[in-house]
Specification:
Structural class: alpha/beta
CATH class of the largest domain: Alpha Beta
Distance between the termini: 55 Å
Order of helices and strands: HHHEHEHEHEEEHEHEEHHHEHEHEEHEH
Radius of gyration: 22 Å
Number of domains: 2
Number of strands: 14
Bound molecules: pyridoxal-5'-phosphate
Length: 411
């Protein structure tokens, strides 16, 4: 049979062990621990001689099934689910980089990732070299022999910058480093990271994958292309070949940091995956209509959305987004902060909230919220102006969203 399509793959993925009652929907195994038939069985589980669940901070059947689905969609070697997108990012870096080494990262990052890189890692002796990832020469010249990886987001927000993944993968690999990508905004449905030579792909599953803002989670997938023998931090696990990254993550870093995803959340995220393609199609189509409307409005200075044919990133996005859909997130610029606040306060359907890729449309003023911990100079460097507004387009009918924007903007 030919390879199944995205939604069929998710709907017909099989758990590692069937539920004994053959329930159609795989159950939530709400348990911390697991019973063993004998003491020898416990020893075999703890020493990895037998594969068995021992404690849900390490593995759990419901979480494992969610990990398997993501892994199938990404075509990975292995996937580990975590308590949040930030846990997925922090665990990945701690798994690969030691004090005295460095990473190269885009300066256009989700605010908390930026803060983790700039503040937390600096305190631990890990240097982060921030670059503009659209400037390939700048990226290339940031590497040295202590650089372990390059980190970018597929679509950086609120600026809506689309990364040229294949080009950046080449730069990282030519510099003997690996390429780690946060694909939260694109999900495995819009961008198949493996096709662009990404080595490790991360998602905050809190967004689209959760089914629409139901719960917080994250995933890390090893796509199988990295040579882990080049990472001395993984030396204890080198004998496991391409499982070395996941083995250290699971058996040391993630286990010791207590980053486990709860089985209840894994259940919701598995459910969310089943309708991911449907929801992404709807919100991408509406986001394009909304962007086209905003682009024509006199009060709107600029609109950032890669689906617009005159957008700076339309061409690179058209090449790397598999479905020719451009996602549900856009941003646009009004005159200043006061104008933005007045406009946002008048909205009746679109909600003022910090999340994105919910089923409900959400709007936020990034400079005064997500970027409020940064000074004006840093915000300026990151292109987060006082007039910038970020809009996450949900599943409402596009006509209703446009009517709401129209009454709030004024004609
Ligand atoms: N990566 C991106 C691109 C995000 O937008 C976010 C959150 O907004 C995160 C990571 C962090 O995810 P979480 O909130 O699940 O920790």
């Amino acid at each position: 049979m030919k390879e199944l399509q995205f939604s069929t793959k998710v709907l017909h993925a099989k758990p590692n062990k069937d539920d004994p009652h053959r329930s159609i929907r795989y159950p939530i195994y709400a348990t911390a621990a697991y019973d063993y038939a004998s003491s020898q069985d416990i020893e075999d589980a703890f020493t990895s001689k037998k594969i068995a669940h021992s404690y849900s901070r390490i593995t759990n059947p419901t979480v494992e099934f969610f990990e398997k689905k993501i892994n199938i969609l990404e075509g990975g070697v292995a996937t580990v689910a975590m308590a949040s997108g930030m846990a997925a990012i922090t665990n990945t870096i701690f798994n690969l980089v030691s004090s005295g080494e460095n990473i190269v990262a885009s300066k256009y990052l989700f605010g908390n990732t930026y803060s983790f890189f700039k503040n937390t890692l600096a305190n631990l002796g890990i240097e982060v070299r921030f670059v503009d990832h659209s400037d390939f020469e700048q990226v290339d010249s940031a590497f040295d022999d202590k650089t372990k990886l390059l980190f970018v987001e597929t679509v950086a927000n609120p600026q809506i910058i689309v990364a040229d993944l294949s080009k950046l993968a080449d730069i990282a690999h030519n510099n003997d480093a690996i390429f780690v990508v946060d694909s939260t905004l694109t999900t495995p449905y819009l961008v198949h990271a493996k096709d662009h030579n990404v080595d490790v792909v991360i998602h905050s599953t809190t967004k689209y994958i959760s089914g629409g803002g139901t719960s917080v989670g994250g995933v890390v997938t090893d796509l199988g292309s990295a040579d882990w023998t080049k990472f001395s931090i993984l030396s204890k696990f080198h004998h496991l070949g391409n499982m070395a990254f996941t083995a250290r993550l699971r058996k040391e870093v993630y286990r010791n940091m207590g980053s486990a995803l709860s089985p209840n959340t894994a259940y919701l995220h598995s459910l969310g995956l089943e309708t991911l393609a449907l929801r992404l199609r709807q919100s991408s189509q509406s986001a394009l209509k909304v962007s086209q409307y905003l682009q024509e409005h006199d009060s709107v200075k600029t609109v950032n959305y890669a689906g617009l044919i005159n957008d700076k990133y339309h061409s690179v996005a058209s090449q790397s987004f598999t479905k020719k859909l451009f996602g549900g997130l856009l941003s646009f610029e009004l005159a200043d902060k006061e104008t933005s606040y007045k406009f946002m306060d008048k909205l009746e359907i679109i909600r003022r909230a910090t999340n994105l890729n919910d089923n409900t449309s959400l709007i936020i003023h990034p400079a005064s919220t997500i970027y409020s911990e940064f000074d004006a100079e840093t915000r300026n460097d990151l292109d987060v102006s006082d007039g910038l507004v970020r809009l996450s387009v949900g599943l409402e009918d596009a006509e209703d969203l446009i009517a709401d924007l129209e009454q709030a903007l004024g004609s």
